[in-house]
Design goal:
By secondary structure, the protein is α/β, with parallel strands linked by helices. The protein has 12 helices and 6 strands.
Length: about 300
């Protein structure tokens, strides 16, 4: 079945199980749309599905980046669209699964990206190393207050990207999601849960990560250069454990910070997805692959 289905929703809502069942039902393959699951070795903290639990279903665009690489939306757009086309050429359904809204919209919609310049970007990164994230954010505020308002002050990657675009083009990037035309025809399914239930699931997930050995995983990745990765080192769980390993807080505090940080991130995910009117929302506690299959058939 040459169809593209996006399974989206916030962290810990239950996308994985639904996507595996649907892939089996539709004879499909999964394309990862979680920007932190791109990184090799970042398994426990990103809740990456172990190979033994993927039911023999191929997963694409997962474990494809080194922890020192930066996740690039433009590169992902090209790679994911090519992967969708390849799956369709084999008569397979493509299931785009994840919670990284920008990456998902970049694949499915007519999202354009301004030019980049590695020389400018490298210089900005070097300056950030010297003066810190806050100073770089204030530079963006001075250059374009509206662009700065659309960027999280701690998100160094997006701050640098905005400053890079301003320097290259003289204009700030458009960070708001407009009503874009669809480029890749798709059925978009969003999963949701009651807020209290989702918060409990997040806490249980973080506790499980610690039990499974997240601290050991971060220690090994630190040796491999995790602190050098501008994107990977800021991943929830990893950033907090790195802080504890550096003596900036206790490991118990790192766990608590991860729980609360994940809850805040979930709120931002929900806000992003609410703007996409093409998403059909379903209750994650009752949804079945057969129900989604029926929606696809009637689309």
């Amino acid at each position: 079945m040459s169809i593209t289905v996006a399974i989206v929703g916030p962290t810990a809502v239950g996308k994985t199980d639904v996507s595996l069942e649907l892939a089996e039902l539709l004879d499909g393959e999964v394309i990862n749309a979680d920007s932190m699951q791109f990184y090799r070795g970042m398994d426990i903290g990103t809740a990456k599905v172990p190979l033994s639990e993927r039911r023999g279903i191929p997963h694409h665009l997962i474990d494809n980046l080194d922890i020192r690489d930066a996740a690039n939306v433009s590169d992902y757009q090209i790679a994911a669209r090519a992967q969708i086309a390849e799956l369709h050429s084999r008569g397979k359904a493509a299931l785009l699964v994840g919670g990284s809204g920008l990456f998902i919209n970049a694949v499915l919609d007519d999202m354009q990206f301004p030019a980049s310049d590695s020389v400018v970007r490298d210089r900005l990164n070097a300056e950030a190393e010297e003066i810190g994230v806050e100073a770089m954010y204030q530079r963006l505020v001075a250059a374009d207050p509206q662009a700065a308002a659309n960027v999280i002050p701690q998100n160094l990657r997006r701050i640098i990207r905005a400053l890079e675009v301003i320097e290259i083009t003289g204009e700030a990037p458009n960070t708001a999601l407009p009503d874009l035309a669809e480029v890749v025809p798709s059925v978009r399914i969003g999963l949701r849960r009651d807020r209290e239930e989702l918060d409990e699931r997040i806490e249980k997930r973080v506790e499980l990560m610690w039990q499974q050995g997240l601290v050991d995983e971060v220690e090994q990745l630190e040796i491999q250069g995790l602190r050098e990765g501008l994107t990977a080192s800021k991943a929830l769980g990893y950033q907090q454990v790195l802080a504890a390993l550096a003596g900036e807080c206790s490991m118990d505090q790192a766990k608590t910070d991860t729980i609360y940080g994940t809850r805040r991130y979930v709120r931002r995910q929900e806000s992003w997805f609410k703007r996409d009117k093409k998403i059909q929302w379903l209750d994650a506690t009752t949804v079945t692959a057969s129900e989604i299959s029926g929606i696809i058939a009637s689309a």
